[in-house]
């Protein structure tokens, strides 16, 4: 399976490496939230496989919900945030929110979301991302938990990819070559 008909894929992170790291993150997050309930707020689409595996690796009570940012392309070829859709409005006042991303790139949207969640009265807001592309960061943002540092231009697999391409269902992460 390829990300597009003309692209070859090079495996970057194996399925076993991903699952091992997700279990480690689940244990670490569970230790940090012992005795608390966590609201895991997954960012669609890139984070859907990661959040499903992560919450199963956690052994504290978890409430799952999702948000979907909608973007438009600017004339400069960058993505500009238009709006954010919540699966449903949650009362987060006094609650612990764990923002779950598949990939943190520029950090602009993530920083906005974290600030918004704090303003809504969350007791705490932490960020976990499977992939952290620090080299692309445009804001001072550091995830509380991350799986892997990456620099590849485009990765697909394990839920990541572009909507018009195949490859999200790969159990590993691959770069197009």
Secondary-structure topology with pairs:
Layout: E1 9-13, H1 15-32, E2 38-43, H2 48-57, E3 62-73, E4 79-86, E5 96-104, H3 108-119, E6 124-132, E7 145-149, E8 155-156, E9 173-176
Parallel strand pairs: 2-3, 2-5, 5-6, 6-7
Antiparallel strand pairs: 1-9, 3-4, 8-9
How would you concisely characterize the structure shown here?
The protein is an alpha/beta fold. It is built from 3 helices and 9 strands, in the order βαβαβββαββββ. The radius of gyration is 16 Å and the shape is globular.
Question: What is the CATH C level class, in words?
Answer: Alpha Beta
Major sheet summary line: 6 strands, mixed
* Gap from first CA to last CA: 14 Å
Beta-strand content estimate: 25-35%
Please tell me the CATH architecture by its name.
Answer: 3-Layer(aba) Sandwich
Structural description of this entry:
The chain has 177 residues and is of the alpha/beta class. The protein has one domain (14-70, 78-155): Rossmann fold. The protein is 23% helix and 34% strand. The chain is globular, with a radius of gyration of 16 Å.
């Amino acid at each position: 399976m390829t990300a597009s008909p003309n692209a070859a894929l090079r495996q970057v992170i194996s399925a076993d490496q991903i699952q091992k790291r997700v279990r480690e993150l689940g244990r670490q997050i569970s230790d940090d939230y012992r005795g608390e309930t966590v609201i895991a707020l997954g960012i669609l689409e890139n984070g859907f496989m990661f959040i499903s595996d992560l919450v199963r690796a956690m052994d504290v009570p978890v409430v799952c919900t999702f948000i979907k940012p909608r973007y438009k392309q600017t004339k400069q070829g960058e993505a500009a945030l238009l709006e954010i859709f919540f699966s449903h409005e949650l009362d987060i006042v006094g609650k612990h929110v764990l923002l779950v991303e598949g990939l943190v790139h520029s950090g602009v949207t993530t920083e906005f979301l974290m600030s918004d969640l704090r303003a809504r009265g969350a007791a705490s807001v932490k960020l976990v991302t499977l992939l952290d592309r620090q080299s692309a960061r445009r804001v001072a943002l550091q995830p509380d938990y991350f799986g892997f540092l990456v620099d590849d231009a485009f990765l697909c697999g394990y839920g990541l990819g572009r909507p018009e391409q195949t490859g999200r269902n790969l159990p590993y992460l691959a770069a197009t070559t």
